[in-house]
Design brief:
heterotrimer, A mainly alpha, B mainly alpha, C alpha+beta, B: mainly alpha, elongated, C: alpha+beta, six-stranded mixed sheet
Chain lengths: 330, 276, 533
């Protein structure tokens, strides 16, 4: 029974989603095989951390974890499980992978979304400001600020922020997602969370803030040259109206594309920020699982973050075509 | 060429950036003259403060001269930056031009391939690659290149798609030129501008990426790079701030300079944008 | 004369007042009840199943919840815990423990000898990496009544009595574990024990909460309301948390060594270096005795003489250690001797030894090249590697440093034996058979087993001494055997003994009685209390 989807947007979405599934599939296969090249396995790590073990103990554990099967068989089993949305079990943590990921997903999402919003809103605002008042002191300040944020190593900025705002000024906590001994609930908890969110979110946001500021500025300036802007000006429209109604929507298109791409790299940036601030998120979990050779967990995180990126990219492309009616969804 | 320099020098930032990078390159080149015994020499005086003594930027916990580290580290940071970019750009250009020129199935396949690499979280994937190959300059360069080429491929593909249907290309096809010649002599030269601009940004990205890897303990332990110095001095940030701060400033200024050069190049190569 | 008498009397009065004040001052601190102790633990454990996992942080968490049959005081003498009396038979083949009555598990059920039998025979002896070897000598545990456990041994094991603290041999509840698969039982991450604290919750990536056991069998204990194990993955952030008082104490190695001294100087923080007694940690450089020229004793001797160990202690570990003289640490006082050859820092001697070995320097001054694999546990080990590169380079040995992650390191060193020189540290535990023998025993060269005999050292005389000493029941004879072992092994120098670590714990001055047993932080912390300021 063939299902025909008549709506072009619906057809487009279907195609993109199917493509997305294939991409995730490819990512899993590539990484699974790649990780087999890493010397050592989860059992050796557990035994090494234990400090002492016997060959029988190791062989026993390997059998339990299913690590003694041939590589392709393991890959096949894993893919079969993924298809049924079973991400496997982490023997190291004694817990299903999905549970572990879900527990750590919240903090990462909060951090990323907040950083994203800060970067996008403030960055674009600054970029627009700089373009509007181009070649004045405002422009120079914004440009220099953006360049410095873009050029500094993210962990260095983070450490500096901790020293200044946490240690010297004592305005904010040094690390973590909550005040651990306090057992806050309800609104107090939210407030405490927000308090802890400030420094990590700012640290993660600064780099992308700079990117958006510069992009927005360059894009705005480019659009300012366009004919329809000149026309609008000639028609006697106020400068403000020119900017917000005609320039801005078109200038933001590249920013939007960039935003889609940034989701993928922000997940990686969060590794450093999470490590620095002790933020219990997925980035750190991925990092730890690599060095513990806990492949089920690592691959699970890859699957999830890739899925996230695919979805965000689809949303961005749809938004893009909505914003610019000249662009069709192909 | 003269036109290029005229346009380029209109951007003050670009000129300053270029001057700074030239200084850094000179410093790296004469490193063995300034500090002949290398950056790892133990001088016997640990945690000497900067600006006071014969060690202008102080020393670290083992008594190694920070200034020596900065000078020798310039070599590594520049080497990593440029080599990585070269490799990434090469891969990206090859894939991008093949996809953009031939279109159709080739384009689809290559773009899906590129999309796979763009979808994997790049920093984590980079860490995985370094972990597999064990940290060394070699593995760091490869890892960063593998993770950063997709952006170049996308850009080049877009350019090739746009130029493929232009008159001079159609004319070349009609003249019977082989595909390879068309790509190399007709289209590629016209895409050099955006490629050069993106390359300059990638050098900066590579340097920052290497610093990040060193911070996480995944850098090459046999060479003195700025990222390595920040990682090594990180624990003493409060007592011996100069260990991590000066290399951090070095990275900041170098990346800044490279970015300014990129902007200058952008202005010089895309003159229609420069009249701001 | 009278002036002198007056001034003497004045002095005497002040002196006595001072002494009285000091006495009052130190004894008048009354333990205060309540409060939450926040302990900085790094890295986060993967599980709390200390009966099958022996990772350091697993043990630190689990020992709050589980008790052992015994504890050990700071001289490593056994002290009653869940067992009140114990004795060994004449022939050494039977050990009897009398158990404490009235002890309840956290779920209310009573603790009996059946739990002892289960914990050891089904749990530790089967699954624990060390326990597997240590308890192999136990054939069975008989339980003639609810409060008596009799261990039947296949041969005498004088070291066995040293393994019954909660860190190595926790007592787990049979009625909750029996019949289940121990490796996947959810109790692994939510343990139920008889200990001073009960497991409350584990927020992975952040913290574990243990709350006070109101029915603890030690009347009046614990003092604290809660103990929280807090995980922060970045070292700098950990230091900041201590400074700000967000955490009250950190376990060893959680604070970078550079900062330990600095933190000690702050008013509200101090450093305690007492938590190592039961563990006798030794830092050493493993040499691959299979590879020429490292297979020659004189080359290895030269290596040792080329290294300034005091420099390493002072500049890299910032004073947290003493030079190690040989395989057995001084914490095992009954067996330790320093009457062995001393490898002092002497580069000239090193060069001479290498010349005699026929390894002359070439035109670049290099005699031979080796690689050094640094233990991937952080900055100090990298600094050590960098120092070795310079120090050994100074006597003509060219060193290339290799960095890799932990699993790769284990694979390379203990499976492939693909190394020349590594750095590492071992815990020696309370008896040489428990932590020392494994490194120097020919029968423990086992591929794939981490921290076994990696150097490949195998001397039949030495092996024989190890085996005899393990079953020797006469304490004096036993001590003599170990001293002989030390002399021989130090002469043959299969590894370079760098230092005995003094594990530094940084704590807030509000925390009192943190370290009271030989186990340091790996006990119940039931005597620990927090003062208000």
């Amino acid at each position: 029974m063939k299902v025909r989807i008549v709506n072009p947007v619906g057809r487009y979405l279907c195609r993109r989603l199917i493509q997305g599934v294939f991409i995730i599939f490819a990512i899993v296969v590539i990484n699974f095989l790649l990780l087999q090249l890493a010397p050592g396995d989860a059992v050796e790590v557990l035994a090494g951390e234990a400090g002492v073990a016997t060959p029988e103990y190791l062989a026993n554990l390997r059998h339990k974890f299913g690590l003694d099967k041939p590589v392709l068989v393991q890959l096949g089993l894993y893919l079969k499980n993924i298809a049924m949305l079973d991400l496997g079990y982490s023997f190291r943590h004694n817990s299903p992978v999905l549970t572990l990921i879900v527990n750590r997903l919240g903090p990462t999402l909060i951090l990323m979304v907040t950083a994203f919003v800060i970067a996008l809103v403030i960055g674009t605002f600054l970029g627009v400001l700089a373009a509007r008042w181009v070649n004045t002191w405002r422009d120079t300040v914004v440009t220099v600020f953006a360049l410095v944020c873009y050029a500094s190593p993210i962990f260095w900025i983070g450490l500096m922020l901790i020293i200044v705002f946490s240690i010297k000024l004592d305005w904010l906590p040094t690390s973590g997602i909550e005040t651990v001994g306090a057992f806050n609930t309800g609104f107090d908890y939210v407030l405490d969370l927000a308090h802890h969110l400030v420094l990590p979110a700012i640290t993660l946001a600064l780099f992308y803030l700079a990117v958006y500021a510069r992009m927005a500025r360059a894009s705005m300036l480019e659009v300012f040259q366009m004919d329809y802007v000149t026309t609008a000006r000639m028609k006697g429209l106020r400068e403000g109206r020119v900017v917000y109604k005609h320039v801005l929507p078109n200038a933001l298109l590249p920013v939007l594309t960039m935003a889609g791409m940034q989701v993928s790299s922000m997940l990686g940036g969060s590794v450093i920020v999470e490590a620095l601030f002790g933020w219990p998120g997925l980035g750190l979990l991925a990092f730890d699982s690599l060095f513990a050779r806990d492949f089920n967990l690592l691959l699970g995180i890859f699957v999830l973050s890739s899925a996230l990126v695919v979805v965000v990219n689809i949303i961005v492309d749809v938004l893009y075509s909505v914003l610019d009616r000249r662009i069709e969804l192909r | 060429m003269k036109e290029f320099w005229r346009l380029y020098s209109k951007n003050i930032g670009g000129v300053l950036g270029l001057a700074f990078i030239v200084l850094v390159v000179i410093m790296a080149a004469i490193a063995s003259l300034l500090y002949p015994t290398g950056p790892f020499t133990l001088t016997g005086s640990s945690y000497v403060q900067p600006f006071h003594d014969i060690f202008p930027l102080g020393t670290d916990s083992l008594g190694r001269d920070v200034a020596a580290g900065i000078v020798w580290g310039a070599r590594v940071s520049l080497l990593v930056g440029f080599t990585t970019t070269l490799i990434a750009v090469f891969i990206g250009v090859v894939i991008g031009c093949l996809a953009g020129y031939f279109g159709g199935v080739t384009d689809s396949v290559l773009m899906r391939f590129t999309e796979v690499f763009q979808t994997i979280p790049s920093f984590i994937f980079g860490i995985v690659l370094v972990a597999i190959m064990s940290p060394s300059l070699y593995s760091v360069v490869i890892a960063i290149a593998v993770v950063t080429w997709p952006a170049v491929a996308r850009l080049v593909r877009g350019e090739f798609l746009a130029l493929r249907n232009r008159e001079f290309v159609i004319a070349a096809v009609a003249m019977g030129m082989s595909n390879t010649r068309i790509i190399l002599t007709q289209i590629l030269p016209n895409t050099l501008s955006p490629i050069i601009v993106i390359s300059s940004l990638m050098v900066a990205t590579a340097i920052l990426f290497e610093a990040g890897l060193s911070f996480l303990g995944l850098g090459d332990p046999n060479v003195m790079s700025w990222g390595f110095m920040i990682g090594a001095g990180r624990n003493a940030l409060r007592t011996a701030w100069w260990n991590s701060t000066f290399p951090g400033v070095a990275i900041l200024l170098t990346v800044l300079a490279i970015n300014l050069i990129g902007e200058g190049l952008n202005d010089a190569l895309n003159p229609k944008l420069r009249d701001k | 004369m009278r002036m002198q008498l007056v001034s003497f009397l004045r002095f005497a009065v002040f002196a006595m007042a001072g002494i009285w004040l000091a006495a009052v001052g130190t004894t008048s601190l009354a333990q205060e009840r309540g409060g939450t102790l926040i302990l900085l633990v790094h890295p986060e454990p993967t599980t709390l199943a200390s009966y099958s996992h022996s990772g350091a942080t697993t043990t630190i968490g689990a020992t709050k919840v589980y008790d052992g049959l015994l504890e050990y005081d700071r001289q490593l003498r056994p002290v009653p815990s869940l067992a009140t009396e114990w004795s060994t038979s004449e022939d050494g083949l039977s050990m009897t423990f009398k158990l404490r009555k009235g002890v309840k598990w956290h779920d209310g059920k009573p603790f009996t000898s059946a739990d002892v039998q289960y914990s050891i025979m089904e749990g530790i002896r089967e699954l624990h990496p060390r326990g597997h070897t240590v308890f192999a000598v136990v054939d069975s545990i008989e339980t003639p009544d609810q409060y008596t456990a009799v261990f039947k041994l296949s041969k005498p094991a004088p070291a066995l009595i040293q393994t019954f603290a909660s860190d190595e041999t926790p007592m787990i509840p049979r009625h909750l574990f029996e019949g289940s698969d121990l490796t996947t039982n959810p109790l692994n991450n939510a343990p139920v024990g008889t200990g001073p604290f009960m497991f409350k919750e584990w927020v992975k990536g952040s913290h574990i909460v243990f709350e006070r056991n109101p029915n603890y069998w030690r009347e009046g204990f614990p003092y604290l309301d809660n103990v929280i194990a807090r995980f922060i993955s970045d070292a700098g952030t950990r230091v900041s948390a201590l400074e700000k008082g967000e955490v009250h104490a950190s376990i060893n190695d959680a604070v970078p060594h550079e900062d330990v001294k600095r933190l000690d100087g702050l008013d509200h923080l101090e450093v305690v270096r007492k938590g190592h007694v039961a563990y006798g940690p030794i830092l050493l450089l493993e040499i691959n005795n299979r590879r020429p020229p490292l297979d020659q004793i004189n080359v290895r001797k030269a290596l040792a003489h080329a290294i300034d160990r005091q420099f390493v202690i002072d500049k890299i570990w910032f004073g947290d250690g003493v030079i190690a003289t040989g395989p057995i640490p001084e914490t095992q006082a009954a067996f330790y001797t320093d009457d062995v050859y001393k490898y002092d820092f002497n580069p000239e001697k090193a060069r001479k030894l290498l010349d005699e070995a026929g390894l002359k320097p070439n035109a670049d001054g290099v005699r031979f090249e080796i690689t050094h694999d640094m233990l991937p546990f952080g900055g100090a080990w990298q600094r050590l590697g960098e120092y070795l590169k310079e120090a050994l380079g100074d006597v003509g040995i060219k060193v290339t440093l290799r960095q890799q992650d932990f699993p790769t390191f284990l694979r390379r060193v203990y499976t492939d034996y693909d190394f020349d020189l590594t750095s590492t540290w071992f815990i020696s535990l309370a008896d040489p058979t428990m932590g020392v023998q494994r490194i120097y025993w020919g029968k423990n060269i086992r591929k794939g087993v981490g921290f076994s005999n990696g150097s490949g050292y195998s001397n039949p005389i030495v092996d024989d001494l190890w085996e005899r000493a393990a079953v020797e029941t006469n304490p004096e004879t036993r001590a003599e055997l170990y001293k002989e072992l030390q002399r021989i092994i130090v002469d043959e120098i299969p590894v370079v003994w760098m230092m005995e670590r003094r594990l530094a714990i940084v704590k807030n001055t509000r925390v009192h009685d943190l370290i009271t047993t030989a186990q340091g932080l790996r006990d119940g912390l039931y005597r620990t209390w927090l003062s208000k300021e």
